[in-house]
Design goal:
single chain; about 80 residues; mainly alpha; 3 helices
């Protein structure tokens, strides 16, 4: 569906907030059909981007913390 969204869960470098927000923006654009919403829809559009960003960050935090390779990288050698 959203081919322009890149995988954010990469083991050697965690996704930053800007990357997560950009992916959320692409997703909301695709779902809503708006590249830039009209002024009347802008608040709902921006709220959706915020919600998708927050949910995406929670997901990334959870799966990264439980990924075996990530835990091995976090342990001191």
């Amino acid at each position: 569906m959203c081919r322009s969204i890149h995988t954010l869960r990469v083991l050697d470098e965690p996704a930053g907030p800007d990357d997560v927000r950009a992916a959320a923006l692409q997703y909301v654009r695709k779902v809503s059909g708006y590249r830039k919403p009209s002024p009347i829809n802008e608040a709902a559009f921006n709220a959706a981007v915020d919600e998708v960003s927050a949910a995406s960050q929670r997901l990334l935090d959870a799966v990264t913390a439980t990924h075996p390779a990530r835990r091995q990288l976090a342990q001191p050698a």
